[in-house]
Amino acid sequence: MSFSNRPPAAGARAAGKTPVSGSTRLPSGRERRPALAALAVILILLGAAGSALIALRSGDRQDFVAISDEAIAPGHKIEKKDLARGDLAGATGGLVLWSEAEKLVDQYTTSWLYPGQFVTKENFTSQPIPPGGALVGVSLESGRAPSEPIMPGDIVRVIRVPAANQDGAVPAVLVGAAEVTGSAGAITDSKTSANTTLNVTVLVPTERSTAVAAAAAAKTLVLVKLSGGTKPEISRSTGGN
Fold first, then answer.
1. 213 by DSSP, 3-state: which?
2. pTM of the prediction?
3. Res. 209: pLDDT tops 70
4. What is the percent of the chain where pLDDT is above 70?
5. DSSP per-residue string spanning 103-121
6. Total Cβ atoms within 10 A of residue 159
7. Which one, of 120, 134, 123, lies nearest residue 179 by Cα?
């Protein structure tokens, strides 16, 4: 019996291996170039669309009147240096356009105004604070004022009520009849019925302004709307009682 030492044929060697499907060859640089070019085109188009959107939105911006560098108290006579220009886009109804800024000079503020705050015409009045009077701004939440609107010219009674932890304390009338000189917001949103905040400025006798301001800060202040024919303790028209 004889044996052969010759290596098996190439076909025999291959027969024992599992064939591999597909190719594991990496794409060449020439094959990758079209994909990279397409990606670059997509990025360029996205960038152009973003730039167009920014330009479109910036075109809707307008210049409005804002307060300059310092807070302004109620009754302050406005000077040019008190006003600054700021731009806004979107819903800006009620704000004073920068082109009308000159009309605000020499008018008087009806409430506290703060740096950077955009203003409305309701923030100003042409009438100064009368002698013996002071303007006090108060913020009121639900239950602290009537749900119906409180507008400039209305007459209200200013009452301090006990805080929740003040057992035995009784309400106190701080001002029997005060004139409302400014109003913004509402106790209840007429569209959603949600509770919001009412900001009111009232003209009160100077000697009682501190008590009114303190009660407003402590959120123990309540306003009661009186008849339109009620005479206020102090008013812009009379300058006194």
1. helix
2. 0.56
3. yes
4. 73
5. GGTT-EESS-B-TT-B-BG
6. 18
7. 134
Q: What secondary structure does DSSP assign to 129-158, as a single string?
A: PPTTEEEEEEEE-TTSS-SS---TT-EEEE
**CA 103, 104, 110, 113 torsion-angle sign:** positive
Residue 20 CA to residue 172 CA, distance in Å, equals: 95
Count helices and strands in the chain by DSSP H and E runs: 3, 9
- Residue 191 CA, chain-centre distance (Å), reads 19
SS3 221: strand
Task: Identify the residue with better confidence: 194 or 207.
Answer: 207
Nearest-angstrom CA–CA distance, 92 and 49:
26
Q: What is the pLDDT of residues 136-156, one digit of tens each?
A: 888 888 888 888 888 889 999
| C-beta of residue 189 within 8 angstroms of C-beta of residue 128 | no
Instruction: Compute how many other C-beta atoms are within 10 angstroms of the C-beta atom of residue 149.
Output: 14
- Determine contact, residues 104/125, Cβ cutoff 8 Å: no
> Nearest to residue 182, comparing CAs of 207, 154, 160?
154
Residue 2, pLDDT > 50, answer: no
- The residue length of the chain stands at 241
- Residues 110, 236: contact at Cβ < 8 Å? no
In Å, what is the CA distance from 69 to each residue of 74, 76, 82, 88, 121? 16, 15, 7, 19, 20
Residues β-bridged to residue 134: 204
Q: What is the Cα Rg of the chain in Å?
A: 37
